[in-house]
Write a structure and sequence with these properties.
alpha/beta, seven-stranded mixed sheet, globular, 17 strands, four-stranded mixed sheet
Length: 391
Amino acid sequence: MIPSLMPTYNRADIAFERGEGAWLFTSDGRRFLDFGAGIATSSLGHGHPHLTCAIAEQASRVMHVSNLYRVPQAERLAARLVDASFADSVFFCNSGAEANEGMVKLIRRAMHGLGQPARTRILCFEGAFHGRTLAMLAATGNAKYLEGFGEPVAGFDHVPLGNLNAVRNAITPHTAGIIVEPIQGEGGVRTCDPRFLRELRTACDEYGLFLGFDEVQCGMGRTGRLFAHEWAEVRPDVVSSAKGIGGGFPLGAILATEEVARHLTPGSHGTTFGGNPLACAAGNAVLDVVLAPGFLDGVGCLGDQLAEQLGGLVADNRDIFAGVRGRGLLLGLECVASNAALQAACLEEGLLVVAAAQNVLRLAPPLVITQADVDEAITRLQRAAARLRRQ
């Protein structure tokens, strides 16, 4: 008999009762060091006093009013994101998949508004992950995710990541834009060369295309900059954000320049829950922390330290690990052994990590971890490697 909760996940037989910082606790007293952060989502860790207070205070006042009325919390959050980024305007939604759907709609709508309605196709990259809606499954292009859901949604073309010649060859008179993750998280923590991102900007300018960055996983401070594309010093036309933007509370956003955003006129796009007072109270609380002086520099420094210590771990366990990839606090351990087996071994050692493609073990801890947390994670990874070796 099917369980009441649809079995769409292979869930570990463990449930958490509470959390504190980078730690999660079960009802029977076991504690786990969380280096997955709900898949790069719990950016401020668990039980962060400023975030939880902001959510509780807003919940006691008003949680939802709909977008038929002004939402001051959303107006403030949008203004702060505009001030801190390339963007001129922001649309709030609920998730990464919804933000990516909106980004595609926005690119197509802008082309229509510019008198080029035939330009609807979006160029995407192999290894990408843009979400689980029907259109975003097509944008992702992974056959495993598409299986059983019928004909893929039309309008998406795919080329190898990092291959500019392939990009240029794939551009047609029907191409509207390019969407890329500066770091492919689900795809194996594959980091785009900054030069490649700059070349994409050049190609978009040359062909009159819009450049979109999917920063659902790598954005909101995870690399030591508010958005990962900032390392390449390139200006996008539109960016999707979610996961860490709400610190664990469901929130997504589409950030865009005026040239693109002005084409989403009243009635052309919408959301029931997106940008409601409670979600935006959470988003503002996250920004209070992430944009505080020195915070992002600290994320970058701690990410460098974690990467260095992971390098030492690899050197000590060449039969288990092959290398380190990623940036900031979105890092991947290239595995010789099975990453699924290593994930299970880490769980046995009280460390939460997330498997990714290309046999990579993903580490995406809360941005508020300490050096002591890093040291403890390395110790538990060493024990997990030893445990796997004994099996």
